[in-house]
Amino acid sequence: MLQTTKTTVDSIQILYEDNHLFIVNKRAGDLVQGDQTGDAPLSELIKDFIKKRDHKPGAVYLGVPHRLDRPTTGIVVFAKTSKALTRLNKMFAEKESQKTYWAIVKNKPQKKSASLIHFLVRNPKQNKSYAHDKEVKDSKKASLDYQLIKSFDRFYLLEIDLHTGRHHQIRAQLSKIGCPIKGDLKYGFPRSNQDNSIHLHARKLVFMHPVKKEQLTIVAPAPTHDPLWRLCD
């Protein structure tokens, strides 16, 4: 099994790097890839970082095989070669990885652990997905397992194994069962976090290295600046 590393350089926390992969622990507020806001995305910041660190005279290649929502923290994988990107795209599309998330929610779920299946309908204008108990027009099936792993005074930490990768899936499904994520105004939490983050963290990723063909396990520490997250690690 390949070992992960953790290095912090400026604002980029590197969890693993080799000739093919660059894996980071994303901060809340960082864009993974450029959007209509025009803000500098993480992909460009990493390109600049690699260019300066390695004294590269030309352009730096960095592919983006998956994304995380802007207010979410945790693991993001980038590809440093086109071969790695092609294989990662195929792997994520075919669900050949294990993704585990942490979510801090307002209400205690009725069951300590359960499988959730909903049918999500995305509204692009609102940038929001709506969860339905039964299949409806234009819906896509969404599936996850959750487990309650820690209780605080007013909040609850859930560990989530994601089986499908729908738009805002975890946020929509947890909201549907009455457990909105802390800070997530869009999905029913009553107030935002001070830094506009939400308490959703891409905690662990297990997958086959696209070139070395060895299993790689990445674990991202929870954000250290937040006192509630510090109680989780």
Summarize the SSE layout with pairings:
Layout: E1 7-9, E2 12-17, E3 21-26, H1 42-53, E4 73-79, H2 82-93, E5 97-105, E6 113-123, E7 128-132, E8 140-151, E9 156-162, H3 169-176, E10 200-208, E11 215-219, H4 227-230
Parallel strand pairs: 4-10
Antiparallel strand pairs: 1-2, 2-3, 3-4, 5-9, 5-10, 6-7, 6-8, 8-9, 10-11
Task: For this entry, give a set of tags.
single chain; 233 residues; alpha+beta; Pseudouridine synthase; 11-stranded mixed beta sheet; 4 helices; disordered N terminus
Could you describe the 3D structure shown?
This protein has 233 residues and is α+β, with helices and mostly antiparallel strands. The chain has one domain (7-230): Pseudouridine synthase. 15% of the residues lie in helices and 34% in strands. The chain is built from 4 helices and 11 strands, in the order E-E-E-H-E-H-E-E-E-E-E-H-E-E-H. It has helices spanning 42-53, 82-93, 169-176, 227-230; strands at 7-9, 12-17, 21-26, 73-79, 97-105, 113-123, 128-132, 140-151, 156-162, 200-208, 215-219. The chain is globular and about 55 Å long. The two termini are 23 Å apart.
